[in-house]
Amino acid sequence: MTDPIAYLGPRLKEIRMKTGLSLREIARQLEVSPSFVSQIENGKSQPSVATLYALAKLLSVPVDVLFESAGDPVAAPTKANDLEVNRNNFDHPTDVWDSSRARISAVNPNNRSIITMDSGVTWERLAATSEESVNFMEIVYEPGAETNKSGDMIFHDGFEYGYALAGELEVTIGDLVLQLSPGHSMGFDSSIPHRFRNTGSTQFRGIWFVHGHNVDHS
Amino acid sequence: MTDPIAYLGPRLKEIRMKTGLSLREIARQLEVSPSFVSQIENGKSQPSVATLYALAKLLSVPVDVLFESAGDPVAAPTKANDLEVNRNNFDHPTDVWDSSRARISAVNPNNRSIITMDSGVTWERLAATSEESVNFMEIVYEPGAETNKSGDMIFHDGFEYGYALAGELEVTIGDLVLQLSPGHSMGFDSSIPHRFRNTGSTQFRGIWFVHGHNVDHS
DNA sequence: GCTAGATGTTCTCTCCTAGTTAACACCAGC
DNA sequence: GCTGGTGTTAACTAGGAGAGAACATCTAGC
């Protein structure tokens, strides 16, 4: 069995990264030297219980998660890393917001980050956590608006989930066409070409969740 | 605030007592000297992280409960080793539904899979895609209902996102307590201990999205 | 280009403390 | 009385928790 204590360092680093805090900032708040934090993260030294506890508290994480084996031994594949498909041209709602992200994010409706598309489509961010490639948002389609003014279908990595709050939305996924009415919901593999269109005469609003495959990455 | 580390010793003793194990027996299994265990229990010395972890493991208790100020119900097993960590009772909404999952999933409100918890909490599945460790659902908290009847906070791998449709929900995440009203939304790293509670007099309903770290796996 | 400020890392060194051994006092049952 | 169990405390030591300084990168600004 693999010693969980051996993973403590990497695990700490992983969690610290998510918080966006620098090693030196941690050291400052913990009142220890930066070098020591580095030594801990690299497994060259071990903290005392007091330091361990303070560390967990600082990262607002139960002590136990520090012992969990960090994710998967994601031995980075040497090859597949360099480039993805040319999905850059597609504008899909991943990582398009500003950079403010945290481990806990609460948003009230009057204070959302909003992105307005030229095509009568609006995304309002509902939460900005430290997860990348993840978007939780309210989407608004004005009457006549559609995903792509060109009418083309789009596809991208990951999955997409939606819940209709108000109005009607015509959802096309692959061959499937369905009408989303308030209370209806759906989810699909977004590598299937898809398109949304508000064919009705009233505004459509829905709760949307979109994420890529690699929800977290080192 | 009183230092939780000061309570570590007494806490250990308390838990050990419940297991019926002698101090010397602990020392034997831990492969340390009995005197040292005594010193730890009396706060005259502190264990290293390794010893602390081994200790928690031996008592089959999460490390965190060693820091709790004594008095809380520990649910310690009567004999060591016959029970696992009492974290198992935590049910969190991942992979609890039936197996029907597809690449495209559309659900209308009258035809949802529903899980009713004993505590007045209901989950209604909004989509069932082929993704594992992912749940998109409408959650309902009746007045007075809470995540855990015991009042304990829960934590698990992954992230959690919510949008309030109706009613009020008291959300506790780590130290943070916030009131979720209709239109409000939030997201957080679910490894931070959290708890939800409907403190109001009306039913709470919200759109929830929960996923583990490993969103897809081959 | 240079500087000034961040970032994380890797040395070397010191002092503290985790953990030891010993002897201690208390019980049971034989 | 012994012999086995229990927990406690003193004196000691070896090892590692943690500091300090110098290191190599970066990025931003002049």
UniProtKB/TrEMBL annotation, chains A, B:
<keyword id="KW-0238">DNA-binding</keyword>
<dbReference type="InterPro" id="IPR010982">
    <property type="entry name" value="Lambda_DNA-bd_dom_sf"/>
</dbReference>
<protein>
    <submittedName>
        <fullName>Unannotated protein</fullName>
    </submittedName>
</protein>
<dbReference type="Pfam" id="PF07883">
    <property type="entry name" value="Cupin_2"/>
</dbReference>
<dbReference type="GO" id="GO:0005829">
    <property type="term" value="C:cytosol"/>
</dbReference>
<dbReference type="GO" id="GO:0003677">
    <property type="term" value="F:DNA binding"/>
</dbReference>
<dbReference type="InterPro" id="IPR011051">
    <property type="entry name" value="RmlC_Cupin_sf"/>
</dbReference>
<dbReference type="InterPro" id="IPR050807">
    <property type="entry name" value="TransReg_Diox_bact_type"/>
</dbReference>
<dbReference type="Pfam" id="PF01381">
    <property type="entry name" value="HTH_3"/>
</dbReference>
<dbReference type="InterPro" id="IPR001387">
    <property type="entry name" value="Cro/C1-type_HTH"/>
</dbReference>
<dbReference type="GO" id="GO:0003700">
    <property type="term" value="F:DNA-binding transcription factor activity"/>
</dbReference>
<dbReference type="InterPro" id="IPR014710">
    <property type="entry name" value="RmlC-like_jellyroll"/>
</dbReference>
<dbReference type="InterPro" id="IPR013096">
    <property type="entry name" value="Cupin_2"/>
</dbReference>
<feature type="domain" description="HTH cro/C1-type">
    <location>
        <begin position="12"/>
        <end position="66"/>
    </location>
</feature>
